Design the sequence.
């Protein structure tokens, strides 16, 4: 068994953990302190810089282990899907798929760099007459921390046109087409803010890309933490966090090498930051170790309703796919340029959603949607995604064979995917799988308000496709009831009220001193925009307050340094 | 097919059933389907009575029906699944896990380690046997690979609507699509639908820089070269227009976005 003592152990290396690791190590160094800080990452270190003993293929010419394809080892390195084994893809059964980033850098391995601040009104949301967000956490309070995160993540606003702008800061042709369609229906598109550094050409995101183009956390926060002396262990999966007197023991499995080995790291302060699904899962798995006064889920004692794992939001994610008209063939060319660079905010004031056009790999768009490929040739064919199989020349259409392949060749240059990000009513839940070995997500019945926003958004997206001379053909939620999100939030909510949250506004457990949760799981509502920048800003604020001892016990005192 | 070094019979049978291969297993006497013993199950390739080369020929024939290569006068003019390396994709160690993760196949029972399940020699042999059974419905005593093209298509079409045989067809179709559009072993499928080639496929790098010229793919220095002139000459392969959209009458975003482009 591996055992060691640390001042701080961080579980995870995504936006929450990376910001905390960098800011706390730098801040303590500025104060003349040299604590032992450890980052534990379940996945691989694709850079080889943070943990040379990490598993994975050899480093390539770009200095990382990414294979830049759909090859299994690449996908296993950067992404993980959580789902509900009992409901996934079953007709008539609501279910949820959560796609998360994994490996050193967490969600930044799979994100598309979109970096928008959350609207002011979101922080004022209420449910059942109670504020969802802690009073001190507002857009105004976060603005300086947003700015800090934007600087370190190299966030810049894309431009429609700019003679002096670097090529990678211009919106794609796809976005101008989208803007024209928005105008046709009385809406307006605007350039997005992206965290990118050079000609990312991230259109290859699912089939290969220039990794350095996108701002991965290994290029900024994590690199800074490493420079400040933070230790990293990849392929180290945490199973439980257990209180041990005034300290905590973080237990798990070191999977590096051929023989996995159990580890037990003791720490004065633990920061759980494994992401919305895994953070809740680790705490659910550890719950029995927190008894009596130290119970993690205070709500269970008071209201007989557990809070941990509940109220997870999918951030209102709702994706659809369609084709544009033949006049725009080769203009969309989704694989060129950045996968996202503009959005339509026009419906935010009335319906609380934004729309983003983006590129998705043809592999996903072609699977199971054969009839849609007929549309350029058979305008009357009914799409299978719309429930009825088309009949062509008196025979049911085929999703294989020469005719199908030729439709695919024609179709690929006209495919356009669109997504809605909206406020939802947090209908999701994280649960332990059988035996507690795995985590599952579940989606209860969709709340009427969520349904209403989605209906408006889908109708709007349909009108946009029609304005482009094409049509929306794939609406997977309507087709099979599966909610798919890449932006899970809120399973370990922060709250001013310990009955309704697991942690306080600074991410500290209401019942356990020095046990923090800092990632998307503490964000208590949908954001309606891509959440990484807000997670980073919340972490920046928590780190700053801890270092200064502002409204909480100072970090040096907590650690006894 | 294996699920870890010593798969239990229960595990193997569950995966084979999920793929619609239960009947094929029974047909070659590999095991009894009603046997619930949890003993280790290690079917022997010799039980299958098939030649390895025939296995490959049979499976590739089916993959080519799924996404055909297109030939003219003996020359390949457009690749299909086989030319894109579908048989190699079939042999990937964790193909099942990948396909399930991508949503191309339904989830397997949670007690099966998907990542460890692979199509080993025995499973490929079983697939070949099943293809022969499917082919026999169209022409008796003829191996699938020896059917003519029309018969192969008919056999596959029949199998897609047969409840016990459709799962394997879906698996083979997914493999064909993965090879063609997934760029797992080759980018020629993507090129076939209009993508530019990966600059360095050997290292799995797809840097594909823009802008560049249309004719020779030369990367252009956007800071120094006259992009407008290149565009006017039809020489610019770019992904931007570098122009503003027309304004939307009456839709003023100043109440929605702040000066930095964030929601207010």
Sequence:
């Amino acid at each position: 068994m591996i055992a060691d003592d640390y001042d701080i152990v961080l579980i995870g290396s995504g936006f929450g953990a990376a910001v905390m690791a960098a800011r706390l190590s730098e801040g303590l160094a500025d104060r003349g302190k040299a604590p032992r800080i450890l980052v534990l990452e379940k996945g691989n270190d694709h850079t080889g810089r943070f943990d040379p003993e990490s598993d994975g293929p050899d480093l390539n010419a770009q200095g990382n282990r990414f294979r830049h394809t759909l090859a299994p080892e690449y996908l296993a390195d950067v992404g993980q899907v959580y789902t509900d084994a009992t409901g996934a893809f079953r007709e008539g059964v609501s279910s949820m798929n959560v796609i998360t980033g994994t490996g050193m850098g967490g969600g930044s391995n799979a994100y598309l760099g979109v970096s928008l601040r959350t609207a002011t009104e979101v922080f004022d949301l209420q449910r059942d007459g109670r504020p969802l967000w802690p009073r001190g956490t507002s857009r105004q309070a976060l603005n300086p921390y947003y700015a800090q995160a934007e600087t370190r993540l190299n966030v810049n606003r894309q431009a429609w046109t700019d003679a002096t702008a670097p090529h990678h800061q211009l919106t794609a042709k796809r976005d101008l087409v989208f803007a024209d369609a928005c105008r046709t229906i009385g809406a307006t598109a605007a350039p997005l803010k992206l965290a990118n550094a050079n000609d990312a050409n991230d259109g290859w995101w699912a089939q290969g890309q220039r990794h350095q183009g996108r701002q991965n956390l290994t290029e900024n926060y994590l690199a800074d933490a490493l420079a400040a002396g933070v230790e990293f262990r990849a392929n180290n999966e945490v199973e439980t966090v257990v209180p041990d007197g005034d300290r905590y023991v973080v237990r798990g499995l070191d999977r590096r090498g051929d023989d996995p080995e159990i580890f037990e790291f003791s720490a004065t302060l633990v920061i759980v930051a494994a992401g919305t699904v895994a953070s809740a899962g680790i705490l659910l798995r550890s719950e029995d170790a927190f008894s009596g006064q130290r119970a993690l889920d205070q709500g269970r004692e008071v209201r007989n309703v557990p809070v941990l794992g509940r109220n997870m939001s999918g951030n209102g994610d709702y994706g659809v796919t369609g084709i544009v008209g033949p006049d725009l063939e080769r203009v969309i060319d989704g694989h060129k340029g950045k996968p996202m660079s503009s959005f339509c905010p026009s419906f935010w004031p009335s319906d609380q959603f934004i729309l983003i056009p983006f590129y998705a790999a043809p592999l996903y768009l072609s699977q199971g949607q054969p009839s849609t490929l007929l549309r350029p040739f058979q305008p009357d064919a009914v799409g299978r995604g719309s429930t009825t199989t088309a009949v062509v020349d008196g025979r049911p259409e085929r999703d294989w064979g020469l005719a199908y392949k030729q439709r695919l060749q024609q179709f690929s240059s006209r495919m356009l995917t669109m997504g809605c990000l909206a406020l939802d009513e947090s209908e999701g839940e994280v649960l332990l799988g059988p035996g507690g070995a795995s985590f599952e997500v579940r989606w209860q019945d969709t709340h009427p308000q969520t349904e209403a926003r989605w209906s408006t958004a889908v109708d709007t997206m349909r009108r946009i496709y029609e304005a482009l001379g094409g049509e929306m053909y794939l609406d997977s939620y309507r087709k099979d009831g599966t909610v798919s999100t890449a932006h899970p939030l809120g399973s370990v909510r922060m709250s001013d009220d310990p009955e309704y949250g697991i942690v306080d506004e600074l991410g500290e457990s209401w019942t356990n001193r020095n046990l923090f949760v800092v990632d998307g799981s503490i964000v208590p509502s949908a954001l309606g925009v891509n959440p990484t920048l807000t997670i980073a800003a919340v972490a920046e604020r928590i780190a700053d307050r801890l270092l200064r001892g502002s409204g909480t016990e100072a970090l040096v005192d907590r650690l006894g340094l | 097919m294996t699920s870890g070094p010593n798969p239990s019979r229960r595990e193997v049978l569950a995966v084979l059933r999920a793929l619609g291969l239960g009947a094929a297993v029974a047909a070659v006497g590999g095991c009894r389907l009603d046997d619930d013993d949890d003993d280790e199950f290690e079917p022997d390739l010799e039980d299958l009575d098939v030649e390895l080369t025939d296995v490959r020929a049979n499976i590739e024939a089916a993959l080519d029906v799924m996404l055909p290569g297109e030939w003219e006068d003996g020359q390949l003019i457009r690749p299909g699944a086989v030319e894109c390396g579908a048989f190699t994709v079939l042999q990937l160690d964790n193909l099942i896990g990948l396909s399930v993760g991508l949503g191309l196949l339904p989830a397997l029972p949670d007690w099966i380690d998907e990542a460890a399940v692979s199509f080993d020699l025995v499973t490929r042999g079983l697939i070949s046997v099943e293809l022969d059974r499917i082919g026999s419905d169209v022409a008796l005593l003829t191996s699938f690979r020896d059917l003519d093209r029309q018969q192969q298509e008919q056999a596959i079409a029949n199998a897609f609507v047969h409840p016990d045989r459709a799962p394997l067809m879906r698996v083979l179709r997914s493999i064909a699509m993965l090879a063609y559009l997934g760029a797992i072993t080759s980018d020629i499928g993507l090129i076939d639908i209009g993508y530019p080639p990966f600059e360095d496929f050997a290292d799995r790098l797809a840097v594909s820089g823009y802008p560049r010229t249309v004719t020779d793919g030369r990367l252009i220095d956007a800071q120094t070269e006259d992009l407008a002139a290149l565009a006017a000459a039809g020489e610019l392969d770019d992904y931007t227009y570098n122009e503003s959209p027309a304004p939307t009458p009456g839709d003023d975003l100043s109440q929605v976005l702040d000066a930095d482009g964030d929601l207010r």
